[in-house]
Design goal:
This protein is of the alpha+beta class and about 160 residues long. It has helices at about 5, 20-30, 50-55, 60-70, 70-75, 90-100, 120-130, 150-160; strands at about 35-40, 40-50, 75, 80-85, 100-105, 110-115. It contains eight helices and six strands, in the order ααββαααββαββαα. The two termini are about 20 Å apart.
Amino acid sequence: MFVRSGMSKKCVCVSPTDSLAKAYAAIREKGLEGLPVSKDGKVIGVITMWDILQRLAETDQPETYLSKTLVAEVMTKQPITIREDDIIEEAALLMHKHDISLLPVINGHNNVVGILTESDFLRIFVEALGLERKGTRISLVIDDNVGELARMTEVVRKKGLAV
């Protein structure tokens, strides 16, 4: 599966010159982990709810801090991104290796076209396993030898089973 098939295409971005209040409201309203920060359509950072809450814990005037602080002051610069035509497994590995909860998706022109989050991966996992479809799931333990899978599918064919 390619990233473009699993990503959330309705990607909300904020600008580096937006207030932290705007980013905070967008994250809460959409129920997201965070947002890409873009300038001229290019991803230049990410801002997460954790980034914001961490900063709010350090101030005694949260409303003032949110309204007067710019996204650029808090965002993670030069974020890890993935291209829409990369495979989804690569995105999962990047998120796991770097312990990140969101991954901006870019196209060949480096424009942001979507986002992948941990929630997207849960949805992809459920779809890939067919957990919401009726049917029977069969698990097999077979030897790791050349031709084993072909042998098993031949057994299924001979029995006239649909897979």
